[in-house]
Specification:
Strand order of the largest sheet of chain A: 1-2
CATH topology of the largest domain in chain B: SH3 type barrels
CATH architecture of the largest domain in chain B: Roll
Number of helices of chain A: 3
Largest sheet of chain A: 2 strands, antiparallel
Structural class of chain A: alpha+beta
CATH class of the largest domain in chain B: Mainly Beta
Structural class of chain B: alpha+beta
Distance between the termini of chain B: 115 Å
Radius of gyration of chain A: 19 Å
Largest sheet of chain B: 5 strands, antiparallel
Number of helices of chain B: 2
Distance between the termini of chain A: 67 Å
Helix content of chain B: 25-40%
Oligomer: heterodimer
Number of strands of chain B: 5
Order of helices and strands of chain A: EEHHH
Order of helices and strands of chain B: EEEEEHH
Number of domains of chain B: 2
Chain lengths: 88, 138
């Protein structure tokens, strides 16, 4: 049996293969929800789904697309937005 | 729509939302652009053409593009390259003073400890005297 503290469902299990061939279970905190477009709620690409302590370690370019409103709007929404502005 | 001198807005990439001019038509799909964006090859799908056309030569240099943009009151931010600051050279500390310092510190600490012990010895005596006196009175 595992430790009673690890039996809670707030932890997720990670199965790892050990060099000897056995699998062991690691217990990790659950990941936060995926980043979504604020306009159409589509899942954003290029935005990692990690806990803040891991996001802190990443460089700025790893955390979001480098276009304006990157990490907030999806590429389709931002493209439509610019088109509407240009056609006025 | 796609011709040399056509003003466009970039739709995709890090230069998106910035205005540019078509300078050359490379291919059925690609054109050369310059302006607020970097001077680079670009897919036609990533451009939104505007209603203005500038008189400009094919493959005109960047300076000419900036001049034409100034007439239209479009600001072009010039990229300024960072000057590398000279790193301060590390000066090695001479080894001899370290030993001298250590010896001096030890001596000082010993003196301090001696003083502290003397003070400690003095204090309890006073306390004892004070404690004894009230007992005699009773």
């Amino acid at each position: 049996m595992v430790r009673p503290a690890l039996r809670s469902r707030s932890l997720r299990k990670v199965f790892r293969k050990l060099p000897g061939g056995k699998t062991s279970t690691y217990y990790r905190r659950r990941k936060p929800s995926k980043a979504k477009c604020s306009n159409c709620e589509a899942i954003l690409k290029g935005v990692p789904q990690e806990r803040p302590y891991k996001m802190q370690r990443m460089s700025k370019s790893q955390k979001r697309p480098s276009r304006p409103y990157g990490g907030k709007l999806c590429s389709k929404c931002s493209k439509d937005d610019i088109k509407q502005e240009a056609r006025k | 729509m796609i011709e040399v001198g056509r003003l466009c807005v970039k739709l995709a990439g890090r230069d998106s939302r910035s205005k540019c001019v078509i300078l050359d038509i490379i291919d059925n799909n690609y054109v050369l652009i310059d302006g607020q964006t970097r001077r680079k090859k670009c897919n036609i799908k990533h451009l939104e053409p505007l209603d203005k056309v500038i008189k400009i030569k094919k493959k005109a240099p960047h300076a000419n593009v900036v001049k034409e943009f100034k007439k239209l009151k479009i600001e072009v931010k010039e990229k300024t390259s960072k000057k590398q600051n000279e790193k301060p050279k590390k000066v090695r500390k001479s080894k001899t003073p370290k030993h001298v310092k250590k010896v001096e510190e030890k001596k000082e600490t010993k003196k301090e400890t001696e003083e502290k012990t003397e003070k400690k010895e003095e204090k309890p005596k006073e306390v004892k005297k004070a404690s004894k006196k009230p007992v005699k009175k009773k």
